[in-house]
Amino acid sequence: MAGADEQFVAGLRTMDRHDVNRLTIQAYTRAQRQMIDEERVRRRRAEAEAEAVAGEVAGAVASTTAALSNLINMMAVLRMNSGESSNSATNQTEGNLNGNNSGENQVSEPAAPVTPNAQLPAKKKKPRKKPQKPIKKSYLFPEYHHLVAEGVENIEFKSSTTDGTLYNETRLIGSLKCSSCGKGWTTGKVATAIRGYEQQNGQLGYSAEVFNQRCAECNSLGHLTLDVDTYVERVARRLLIWKGEFSPEPRTHEQFTPPHRFDLCEGCAVGRCVLGGYGRG
Fold first, then answer.
1. Each residue's pLDDT tens digit, 196-207
2. Domain map (residue ranges) of the chain
């Protein structure tokens, strides 16, 4: 009987699923009916498992396709932003937005495909440049007072260019760039007038007026960049002398520069230059 049962089961497995389901169960013995039922159950389970596997495969394919699409779109965005794209976009002509018939058209380029997962490359922040002072004939530098105050006690910066009870002229180091033609030059002869103001609170008020220079090519005023160390050193030394306190010798910071041009110095123009200019004739 075992051989007959195996042959019966083998015959069932060669049959189509629809043929197995159409078998008249009453025409078979009890044992054969059980075999038919088991074969039907086995096939239903196999079909369910096949559908589940197919669903998983389809999901994996869809996920892979989406990831690949995102990668392609991201590469397109990166290429567009880095300027490495070798394909020029087709220009699309639109009608004039004003609705007139002037014949002028606007041309726009189609945007590169961007998906929610695509991220544009981060732009590097440019370093901030220190703002230049407006171009003037002379300047005050209150922003350097805290540096001067590190070496001199009981002083107060005054935003004044009026002469006080104390006065001294010196020269500083700086570089300039013409505000018109762009020519640059360096000088160790930046005229500076230091003024002292005696105050009732016991503090010594002071100001240091730094004079601009003009361009030898076009006679325009320059953008002045001051050597801060020299400014602090010479202003502090003068204040210590006025206060009657010990003052160390200033640092030697000599630099060869072209001869001083009285006609280009704003300090000379108003008689405030230590090098001897007394106005322009």
1. 999 888 899 999
2. 1-82+105-121, 138-269
